[in-house]
Amino acid sequence: MLSFRFNVYLQLLGLAYLATFIWLLVFVTLSIPVFLWVMVHIVCREETDYWRSINANKDERDFTYTFNLTHYGTFLFIASI
Fold first, then answer.
1. Nearest-angstrom CA–CA distance, 71 and 81
2. What is the distance between the alpha carbons of residues 16 and 23, in angstroms, rounded to a whole number?
3. What pLDDT, on the 0 to 100 scale, is given for residue 59?
4. Helix (H) or strand (E) holding 11
5. Which residue in 4, 37, 46, 58 has its CB near the most CB atoms, within 10 A?
6. Which superkingdom, per the lineage (predicted)?
7. What angle do CA 23, 29, 34 make, to 5 degrees?
8. pLDDT of residue 20
9. Which residues contact residue 10 at a Cβ distance below 8 angstroms, ignoring those fewer than 6 apart?
């Protein structure tokens, strides 16, 4: 039979594992929406700045649209009529 002291230590160890798991769960749960919010705002700002920087007098065939998303690589859009 396990001693009382060992049983208490085992319960404390289980409580520590449970607390660690809960902290990790909270961190992951909160970090995903924060990451997505930041990523969307950075992408939208980059795209808005790019399209606002195009001169209205410039012919649309003269510019290429290059936007780099780290995970998806480089997307190249060449406007043509």
1. 30
2. 11
3. 55
4. helix 4-52
5. 46
6. Eukaryota
7. 120
8. 96
9. 2
Tell me how crowded residue 29 is: count the other CB atoms within 10 A of its CB. Answer: 9
Q: What is the C-alpha separation between 40 and 43, in angstroms, rounded? A: 5
The structure's pTM equals 0.43
Indicate the residue type of 1: M
The per-residue pLDDT for range 38-80, each reduced to its tens digit, is 888 887 887 777 777 766 555 555 555 555 554 444 555 565 6
* Length reported for the chain: 81
Tell me if 66 sits within 8 A of 79, measured CB to CB. no
**What is the domain range of residue 47?**
4-78
- What's the Cα-to-Cα distance from 34 to each of 4, 30, 70, rounded to whole Å? 45, 7, 18
Return the HEC string of 23-62.
HHHHHHHHHHHHHHHHHHHHHHHHHHHHHHCCCCCCCHHH
For residue 59, give both structure tokens: 């012919």
